[in-house]
Specification:
Distance between the termini: 21 Å
Shape: globular
Largest sheet: 4 strands, antiparallel
Radius of gyration: 13 Å
Structural class: alpha+beta
Number of strands: 6
Number of helices: 2
Helix content: 25-40%
Length: 87
């Protein structure tokens, strides 16, 4: 259970995956410089606030996705919340 600066409380995974009908969705993005560089290497994808959406895994660089995941885990471990909530 975490409490955010906004007052919002709740449990959430550090990173997550959802195989949606229209795309594979990865809840993995924290807005850090390293993540921004990693996203530039992904290839074919769409972004929302903290999610990366891809049609199929072969459309992206899996190594870049792994680095984004690791960076998000590190960021959240250090700050206890996703940087997407800090705006």
């Amino acid at each position: 259970m975490g409490k955010y600066a906004s007052g919002h409380e709740g449990d959430a995974p550090v990173i997550a995956f959802s195989p949606r009908k229209t795309a594979l969705t990865f809840y993995v993005y924290s807005e850090t410089e390293k993540s921004k560089l990693g996203v530039a290497d992904l290839d074919k994808f769409k972004m929302s606030k903290a999610c990366i959406h891809v049609k199929k895994l072969s459309d992206i660089d899996i190594v870049a996705l792994k680095e984004i995941c690791l960076e998000s885990i590190k960021y959240i471990s250090e700050h206890h919340e996703c940087s997407c909530r800090l705006k």
